[in-house]
Request: fold
Amino acid sequence: MKHPMQRSILMMLAMFIFLFCETSAQFFQLRLVSSASAWQQQDTVGQSSNHLFGYQTVQLALAGEHLSFHTYLQGFNDFAGPLKNEGTIRFYNFYLNYANLFEMVDISLGRQAIFAGVGNGTIDGGIASIRLLDSRLKVFGYYGALPSPGQKFEMISDQKNNNMFGAQLIGMPMDFARVSLSYMQKNIKPETYWALRKDSLFNPVITEISPSATAEQYISGDISIDYDMISAYARSDFDLNQEIFSRIQFFTRVRVTEPFSLTGEYIHREPHLSYNSIFWVFAYNTISEYELGAEYAICKDWQVFGKFGAVSYGDDNSNQVTLGCNIKYASASFSWNTGYGGELAAFSMNAGYPLFDNKLTPTIVAGYAHYKLNSNAPITDALSGAVGAVYRPIPALSLDAQVQWIQNKIYNNDVRLFLRGSYYLGERLNIF
Reply:
């Protein structure tokens, strides 16, 4: 007997093929990405293990005039480490979308990602959006179960207590302004399990553990403006369960002159804790971050910048200064940190130059850090570097390779190899 998720998928595919029969042409897109990384991991002092990670990503879309099918999945295996032969497959999305129904409605069904203001995550369910007032007003709503652990190709067993739903209202009162109001509720109840626990006489007994259900419920508003020389963004999230503002954010950029800009940002955040979670019993501090910056474009391909930032943990503070420059084929930066987060002086640079009509691009990365974790800790140095190349013989094919090296007090000489191949296919079909 087929699993409910498998039955629903077969029904979706049957409906998909039936509806596509009514279209004259379909656009097929396929992206395959194969990658591997190899290194030696220091598990404990004097003991290490070799690892060879392999990834295979498949991204596929088949779209007609209104109806489209999308899926994105990734396979993983450690071919050399302790977890070898324990390969996994994760389905990040698998859904049907019908666009422009009545020239104003979009509907999608299946596993899909949510990006709706305060609502973020993945659901096995449905999304609907309606465009009104010549697309100046958009209403977006969603409901679905949370995906199964490990993004498996199945529905979670307890959908009643593991779900997410919400809505977002987006308006454009003026061409240079965008306003949004969003709501999200997420319910999470981990599965019960059996474990050894002590009885009243301290004897070990097998006990069923039933974790408590937790919940998150937020409402959020944000506004973005890009007018003349000023662009700004403001956002506020309110935790309805704890009745506190969990996040307050403001960012602005002022173009004083054509090449010279000033930036400023403020973020206040409360720890993200689910209602009725065990973490409520712990004491915690809020975090406030400030940053001021300046950017100057010397010419089209040269830009220099500087930033000063501070983080307040309540009774303690950390400061950071960053200076850097960007040119057409390279960038470099220097940062200096002091305070509660430790002391750090670090320099990094990277460069890449295209050759043979952009078919081959050698790359190089280098970094140095001089740091200590607190005022009583010893000073530590870390040196890192990487060399690689990107080869694109044709626009649809890309081959990447990089060798990374790091040296610090934990890894005397750590070398890692990364390989990646990407292939893209896009064709217009007439198969139905």
